[in-house]
């Protein structure tokens, strides 16, 4: 937007310039009749150059523009029989009618499909939110597809994987009997997302993928969850199996009994690192269509998820999950060396994390 504005100013400048040079030409000489012609050609050339410059700027900035045109052309043919005149023009880039290679969508062929990606960090409630979304009969969120390393080894592999997913050719337990109206995945920032962010933003904009950020406000609580999860991964406290998420209060209580001792020397560095990662992610993806959700807000107010359904242009309905929250007490009751942690954070910008308390 700003760039386009600058471009416009430039054009004005050029016009002014041409006006003054024209005046100069008229005033200064009568004999040289060839002058105006040369001038005009020069001016024309200049205008063309400026035009090309502006065009290249808009391409660079809105890689979207071109990409969307392309995608639109590919999907045009399919759109025609399905076209719904009620869809506003601004929505068209985000409305898709995929034709899977592996089966026929049949009666769902003209059901509009939205593409999304839940962008999050480990232990930020994305598992819980994904199960809530998947309880909607028309939403299919396919889990952490990119936790499998080869799928994210380079941008070619990433694109291939996403193409398959958004073409509705991906098989997972998220598959629905109903017509899919929104398809997506859960993608952790450290699963190639930040490493290849430029290409991925381009892909999102070209294919009309909407990003759903799910972040955590209290990074100390998140850190406790990471340490507790790592502990269970090693100790396998529930009958010898490790569980990242639990479905019963009893299981939650067993996992919450473990109180990590936090290294007070590295704590600040750790908090700064995850704070920066989240900030960088928001920065890198700011030019995509996106919504930002905070775990704590959803815990306090489930209705926040209706904003997500709105964002995906899906009819609202009640969502449910069997996940049970693990850490439900005051934060001080979940950390072994609370005094150390409290001392380390008091007076820093992370002090407010100490008051963390959450219920669901
Ligand atoms: C991308 O990774 C895949 C699998 O790891 C590999 O086979 C392929 O050659 C790589 N492609 C490029 C362009 O690096
Ligand atoms: C959800 O699926 C049903 C049944 O397959 C379909 O009739 C309905 O149109 C779908 N809803 C949306 C919003 O696409
Ligand atoms: C462990 O296994 C026993 C017997 O199979 C079962 O009754 C109990 O609920 C399990 N406990 C947990 C924490 O999963
Ligand atoms: C809960 O979230 C919804 C959707 O964002 C909002 O409209 C509503 O005001 C919130 N309720 C409370 C009590 O904050």
Tell me what you see in this structure.
- The protein is an alpha/beta fold and 360 residues long.
- Helices cover 50% and strands 8% of the residues.
- It has one domain (92-355): Rossmann fold (3-Layer(aba) Sandwich), CATH 3.40.50.
- It contains 13 helices and 5 strands.
- The chain has a 5-stranded parallel β-sheet with strand order 2-3-1-4-5, sandwiched between helices.
- Helix 2 (34-61) packs across helix 3, helix 3 (63-82) packs parallel to helix 7 (197-207) and helix 10 (264-284) crosses helix 13 (338-345).
- Mean pLDDT is 86; it is low at 1-29.
- The structure holds 2-acetamido-2-deoxy-beta-D-glucopyranose (4 copies).
- One 2-acetamido-2-deoxy-beta-D-glucopyranose is lined by residues 301, 303-304, 306-307.
- The site of one 2-acetamido-2-deoxy-beta-D-glucopyranose has 5 residues, from helix 12.
């Amino acid at each position: 937007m700003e760039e386009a504005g600058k471009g416009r100013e430039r054009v004005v400048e050029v016009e002014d310039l041409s006006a003054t040079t024209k005046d100069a030409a008229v005033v200064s000489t009568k004999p040289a009749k060839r002058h105006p012609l040369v001038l005009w050609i020069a001016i024309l050339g200049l205008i063309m150059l400026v035009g090309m410059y502006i065009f290249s700027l808009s391409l660079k900035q809105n890689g979207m523009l071109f990409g969307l045109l392309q995608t639109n052309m590919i999907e045009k043919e399919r759109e025609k029989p399905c076209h719904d005149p009620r869809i506003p023009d601004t929505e068209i880039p985000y409305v898709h009618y995929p034709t899977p290679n592996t089966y026929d969508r049949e009666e769902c062929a003209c059901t509009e499909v939205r593409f999304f990606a839940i962008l999050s960090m480990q232990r930020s409630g994305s598992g819980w939110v994904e199960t809530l979304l998947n309880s909607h009969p028309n939403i299919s969120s396919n889990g952490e597809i990119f936790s499998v390393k080869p799928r994210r080894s380079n941008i070619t592999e990433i694109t291939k994987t996403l193409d398959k997913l958004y073409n509705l050719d991906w098989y997972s337990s998220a598959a629905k009997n109903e017509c899919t109206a929104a398809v997506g995945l859960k993608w952790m920032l450290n699963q190639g997302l930040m490493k290849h962010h430029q290409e991925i933003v381009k892909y999102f904009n070209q294919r009309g993928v909407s990003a759903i950020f799910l972040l955590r406000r209290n990074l100390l609580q998140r850190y406790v969850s990471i340490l507790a999860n790592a502990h269970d991964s090693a100790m396998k406290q529930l009958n010898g199996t490790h569980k990242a998420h639990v479905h019963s209060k009893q299981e939650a209580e067993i996992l919450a009994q473990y109180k990590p001792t936090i290294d007070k020397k590295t704590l600040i560095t750790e908090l700064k690192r995850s704070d920066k990662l989240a900030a960088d992610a928001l920065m890198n993806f700011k030019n995509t269509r996106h919504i930002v959700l905070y775990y704590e807000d959803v815990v306090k107010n489930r209705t926040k998820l209706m904003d997500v359904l709105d964002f995906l242009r899906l009819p609202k309905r009640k969502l449910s999950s069997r996940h049970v929250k693990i850490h439900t007490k005051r934060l001080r009751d979940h950390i072994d060396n609370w005094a150390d942690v409290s001392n380390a954070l008091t007076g820093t910008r992370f002090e407010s994390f100490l008051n963390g308390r959450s219920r669901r």
